[in-house]
């Protein structure tokens, strides 16, 4: 069961950004981690409660490295969640294509996103739901600020180049809330070891880990940090920066 608090926040985020709409057929990206498992259960509950109809299917992208998804398949079956494994050869492609020193994680993330989009087409879905949360949005924001010189985060909803709408229903929730949901329900979660980048002998993505540490130190000092980040992401004075395209005058 997904907590009332999560369901309430899901409802608020949905209402604010019009995420799920009548007649949608939504592909939920299910890695089997705590976030996407919570997402699929929360959306299933939302489907039961919504005064309008929409469809949900969960899809797991397999990288072609002999993953064992039997526990995840059984979990979905026993909870009445339509679930498909989308087979790919991303792992082999990575071995051939990846440039030296490029980030394995971002390579896999790009390839996986492409596969999720093809799966959405194959299953006739108009939206793709991802399990990113507020901690992800804050980490992305600071990574973009510090490493790329770009003010940028993760949108709750956007249209991809191919026309598909991507939604992030958990984007205003804390990672620890989602971890607690998975733990309290005893869901069989797949951890980071499932990411194929772990199989390559390269530097791990330190940047994100560093941002996590930095944010947790800041939160120690400013306990309301994430409440403020959530508010700030919704209050943007874009004419107060230096972007010539955004000057109000
Ligand atoms: N192998 C996969 N198959 C389908 N969807 C995926 C897969 N990996 C990630 N996703 C989707 O992309 C989102 C973001 O992926 P990311 O790798 O940042 O998170 P994650 O740490 O895998 O999250 P989770 O706790 O859900 O596993 C996930 O929440 C999920 O919706």
Quaternary arrangement of the chains shown?
Answer: single chain
Count of DSSP H/I helices: 9
| Helix coverage percent | 40-55%
Number of beta strands: 6
Q: Order of strands in the sheet with the most strands?
A: 3-2-1-4-6-5
CATH superfamily: HUPs
Binned strand content: 5-15%
Shape: globular
Q: Which residues form runs of ≥5 with pLDDT under 50? A: none
List the secondary-structure elements in sequence, H or E: HEHEHEHHEHEEHHH
Number of domains: 1
Query: Given the helix and strand composition, which structural class is it?
Result: alpha/beta
Distance between the termini: 52 Å
Mean pLDDT: 92
**Per CATH, which architecture?**
3-Layer(aba) Sandwich
Protein name: ATP-binding protein
Keywords: ATP-binding, Nucleotide-binding, Transferase
Organism: Sulfurimonas diazotrophicus
Domain tRNA(Ile)-lysidine/2-thiocytidine synthase N-terminal: 26-195
Summarize the structure.
One of its GO terms (molecular function) is ATP binding. The protein is of the alpha/beta class and 249 residues long. The chain is 46% helix and 11% strand.
């Amino acid at each position: 069961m997904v907590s009332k608090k999560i369901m309430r926040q899901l409802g608020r985020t949905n209402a604010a950004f019009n995420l799920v709409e009548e007649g949608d057929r939504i592909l939920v990206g299910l890695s089997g981690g705590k976030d996407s498992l919570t997402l699929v259960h929360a959306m299933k509950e939302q489907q039961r409660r919504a005064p309008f109809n929409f469809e949900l299917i969960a899809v797991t992208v397999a990288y072609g490295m002999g993953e064992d998804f039997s526990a995840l398949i059984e979990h979905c079956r026993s909870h009445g969640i339509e679930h498909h494994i989308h087979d790919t050869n991303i792992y082999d492609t990575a071995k051939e294509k990846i440039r030296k020193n490029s980030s394995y994680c971002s390579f896999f993330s790009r390839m996986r996103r492409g596969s999720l989009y093809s799966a959405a087409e194959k299953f006739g879905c108009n939206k793709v739901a991802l399990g990113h949360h507020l901690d992800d949005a804050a980490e992305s924001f600071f990574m973009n600020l510090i490493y790329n010189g770009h003010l940028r985060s993760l949108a709750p909803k956007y249209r991809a180049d191919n026309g598909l709408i991507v939604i992030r229903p958990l984007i205003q929730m804390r990672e620890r809330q989602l971890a607690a949901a998975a733990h309290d329900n005893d869901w069989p979660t797949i951890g980071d070891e499932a990411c194929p980048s772990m199989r390559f002998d390269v530097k791990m993505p330190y940047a994100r880990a560093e941002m996590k540490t930095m944010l947790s130190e800041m939160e120690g000092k400013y306990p309301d940090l994430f409440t403020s980040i959530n508010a700030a992401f919704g209050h943007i004075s874009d004419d107060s920066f230096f972007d010539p395209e955004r000057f109000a005058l």
